[in-house]
Design goal:
The chain has a domain of 69 residues. Helices cover 57% and strands 0% of the residues. It is built from four helices and no strands. The chain is rod-shaped and about 110 Å long. The relative contact order is 0.11.
Length: 118
């Protein structure tokens, strides 16, 4: 029986054709894939986010948690922006709550017929 492969010689296995190597895909300008893959990019700790949310609803507790988160983020090299905003917001809202409770609350209590001084 005759061999159907040309130039096959002693082997019945065909020769591999030469393929050109596919061109490498270029990374688009402005995209840095190394930082997201390697994990070296600074991150926002969850404690900072919790402190910010608590600062809105419970300023004193939020101020304390945000302060702790800010200190911890500085030590770990993480982003401190959210913790700093939570700390500032906690201080501002604590002052606003104090001013409201000192100025407006006694007037409301007097209108309701309650003694304003204890």
């Amino acid at each position: 029986m005759s061999n159907s492969f040309p130039n096959s010689g002693h082997s019945d296995v065909p020769q591999k054709p030469d393929f050109q190597e596919a061109p490498q895909q270029q990374t688009p300008v402005g995209y840095n894939t190394q930082a997201s893959v390697s994990g070296d990019a600074p991150r926002t700790p969850a404690l900072s986010i919790v402190g910010l949310v608590l600062s809105i609803f419970f300023p004193l507790i939020g101020l304390i948690v945000s302060g702790i988160a800010w200190k911890k983020a500085k030590e770990d090299g993480d982003k401190t922006t959210v913790a700093m905003i939570g700390t500032i917001l906690g201080v501002v809202l604590l002052i606003v709550n104090f001013i409201v409770s000192v100025t407006i609350l006694p007037g409301l209590m007097e209108q309701a017929g309650m003694p304003s001084q204890l």
